[in-house]
Amino acid sequence: ATDEYFSAFISNGRSTEICFILFTLFTVVIIYAGVRNGIERVSKFMMPILVVLSLLIAGYSVSRPGAMSGVKYLLVPNLENFSWMTVVSAMGQMFYSLSIAMGILITFGSYMKKDTSIEDSTQNVEIFDTAIAIMAGLMIIPAVFAFSGGDPDTLQAGPALMFITIPKVFASMGLGAGILFFVLVLFAAVTSSIALTESAVSTFEDELHWSRKKATVFMAVIMLLLGTLSCLGYGPLAGVTVIGMQFLDFFDFLTNSVMMPVAAIATCLLVSRVIGVEKIESEVTEGGHPFRRKAVFQFMIKYLCPIFAAIILISSVANAFGWISM
Question: Which of 54, 160, 173, 188 is placed for a possible disulfide with 177 were both Cys, Cβ 3.0 to 4.6 Å?
Fold first, then answer.
């Protein structure tokens, strides 16, 4: 059974560690090759494949009998399922989805050519991120409804949704849909891993003046050490917890609920109080490009974003410790 295989796999420290080491080595090899020879080439290859696979799976998913109930569940608001933590969770998801407060946008932004419009690039990120998010929903939710008899409770399975429920759905589809889906997931994971690692490597290069080789090797060691704890967290180290959480859950809580909101608040204060909006405007308008969103940006960076980031921080930490519920 799929659930038995998944449980056995994550509890087998050897299997998860081997897969993790291979994944890490693949990431650092691309990072070591540099931005143009490594990251750019891989992204140009992977991103179109991601889009094509997404379209294929989404098209097949919504065409199944009963799938329209899933489309309705995805796109039509239901106030019965709405709560304060729904808003907080959605705002928290933006950190991951848009790579906010991770240093990724700053790192890749520093590689942009001077004649590239920052505002137009931002608009492209908004459009494609939203489109891919909707497409991901159309891949998964209608398929689950079609093969579960329209039971929305199957969507409440958390991580098990992807690795237990979804494989059963795609196994019923046939046509290699399950393989395509997990190739898609793998490509998405690789592109995210590359972006996050590049952010750290470039920081060591710029701030400590390390060579790219030294920074990449150092990051590889850090990744292997911390990642191994997560790999073994449901196996040999299952009995070891940090504030009541297993290693993977703790790292997820630490980064998503604490570090990213704190970094976001610090970034807002740095830009609005130290650097100044005028300096940002000069960067955006360089090369004669307009800054059409200046008023909106100024209001959000000074007031709205710090408040929302603080709400995410407080609510997420309170929820993790059981002071409030989802």
Answer: 173
Nearest to 170 by CA among 154, 153, 137, 147: 147
What amino acid occupies position 151?
D
> Minimal CA–CA distance to 299: which of 283, 280, 277, 270?
277
d(CA 315, CA 225): 30
Distance CA 230, CA 241 (A): 11
In terms of Cα–Cα distance, which of 83, 303, 104, 95 is closest to 201? 104
| Alpha carbons 59 and 68: distance in angstroms, whole number | 12
Q: Give the Cα separation of 134 and 142 in Å (integer).
A: 12
The letter for the amino acid at 133 is A
284 sits in the region (left: phi over 0; alpha: psi -120 to 50; else beta) called: alpha
Q: What is the dihedral of CA 145, 146, 148, 152, to 10 degrees?
A: 10
The arithmetic mean of pLDDT across residues 83-110, rounded, is 77
Helical axes 2-11 vs 13-33, angle rounded to 10°: 70
Report the distance separating Cα 202 and Cα 31, nearest Å: 10
Whose structure tokens read 């929305």? 152
DSSP 67-86: HHHHHHHHHS--GGG--HHH
pTM, full prediction? 0.78
Distance separating alpha carbons of residues 30 and 198, to the nearest angstrom: 9
3-state SS assignment for residue 245: strand
- Asked whether 50 and 189 are in contact (CB, 8 A), the reply is no
Say whether 242 sits in a helix, a strand or coil.
Answer: strand
Question: Look-up: residue for tokens 């958390």?
Answer: 158
- Give tens-digit pLDDT for 146-196: 877 666 666 655 666 677 667 766 676 666 667 777 877 788 788 888 888
Go through 160-180 and write b for each residue having 16 or more CB atoms within 10 A of its CB, e for each that does not.
Answer: ebebbbbbbbbeebeeebbeb
Q: Please give the Cα distance from 311 to 325 (Å, whole number).
A: 15
Q: What is the structure's pLDDT at 158?
A: 61
Mapping DSSP to helix (H, G, I), strand (E, B) and coil, where does residue 319 land?
A: helix
